[in-house]
Amino acid sequence: MKGIVLAGGTGSRLAPLTRATNKHLLPVYDKPMVYYPIQTLVNAGITEILVVTGGRNAGDFLRLLGNGRDFGLKHIDYSYQEGEGGIAEALGLAEYFAAGQSICVILGDNIIENNICLAVDNFRKQKAGAKILLKEVPDAQRFGVAEIRGDRVLNIEEKPKHPKSNYAVTGIYLYDRTVFDKIRSLAPSGRGELEITDVNNLYLKEGNLTFEILDGWWTDAGTFQSLLRANNLVAETGANKVHQQNDARMMAQAKGSQ
């Protein structure tokens, strides 16, 4: 499986901070924002990674990340998105890199407390279709919102005024090779963008969309409020934990076997 970090866009909601640099290069506690999603992929065992960026500061990613030595990587790929065509358009630039393999996609401003190892392992067993990661939030209207019943997704709405649930679709997606065919079939939304929610709904119509609830806290960092929250959460608890979560799971399994 290959990993893709989507780190384009103008970051207009964080102006004037983003007049000087790309949003994903802003600091979150003690690291640049983009470090967190890359580490999420690496922790899940994904070492072939593409960073899709754009805007006037794209070259800064190369100066910052290089070939990924800070993450124990030998190489990072880069792609450039011209303009603001939406998340799905940015993902479409990764088709050559994906080379027919399944992909794990994470938005460059998404930060998590723990890891996605179990979701990635389960998707490998799924073999086809897509998997989205959900998290219950108090402000669901800011996100794509999934209506679920049992182990099924019934519907996904993009930024609904009256959400049917509190389960936000986090910016972490797992897709099979057909995702690029689906992107080519999309028409721009009212915002003039190709929407990732439309991609997910195409998988839903096929009956090939599964979900998991993300463990631990999750936040984006695309507004002043959420950027502050991300800084505070990382400072208080740390992010991208692996061993702590695995140790807790092993202890629970050991108690259950006694």
What does this structure look like?
The structure is a single chain. This protein is 32% helix and 25% strand. The chain has helices spanning 35-43, 58-65, 87-92, 95-98, 117-126, 179-184, 196-206, 224-237, 243-257, and strands at residues 2-7, 27-28, 31-32, 49-54, 77-81, 103-107, 111-112, 130-136, 144-149, 152-158, 167-175, 209-213, 218-219. The strands form four sheets. A seven-stranded mixed β-sheet has the order 5-4-1-6-11-8-12. The protein has a two-stranded antiparallel ribbon with strand order 2-3. It has a two-stranded antiparallel sheet with strand order 7-13. It starts with a strand and ends with a helix. Mean pLDDT is 90; it is low at 247-258.
Which helices and strands, and how do they pair?
Layout (H helix, E strand, L loop, with lengths): L1 E6 L19 E2 L2 E2 L2 H9 L5 E6 L3 H8 L11 E5 L5 H6 L2 H4 L4 E5 L3 E2 L4 H10 L3 E7 L7 E6 L2 E7 L8 E9 L3 H6 L11 H11 L2 E5 L4 E2 L4 H14 L5 H15 L1
Parallel strand pairs: 1-4, 1-6, 4-5, 8-12
Antiparallel strand pairs: 2-3, 6-11, 7-13, 8-11, 9-10
Uncertain segments of ≥5 residues (pLDDT<50)?
Answer: 247-258
Helix and strand pattern:
EEEHEHEHHEEHEEEEHHEEHH
- End-to-end gap: 37 Å
Q: Strands of the biggest beta sheet: in what spatial order?
A: 5-4-1-6-11-8-12
Largest sheet: 7 strands, mixed
Task: Return the average pLDDT rounded to an integer.
Answer: 90
Structural class: alpha/beta
The proportion of residues in beta strands is 15-25%
How many β-strand runs? 13
Number of helices: 9
List keywords for this structure.
two-stranded antiparallel sheet; 32% helix; 9 helices; single chain; globular; alpha/beta; 258 residues
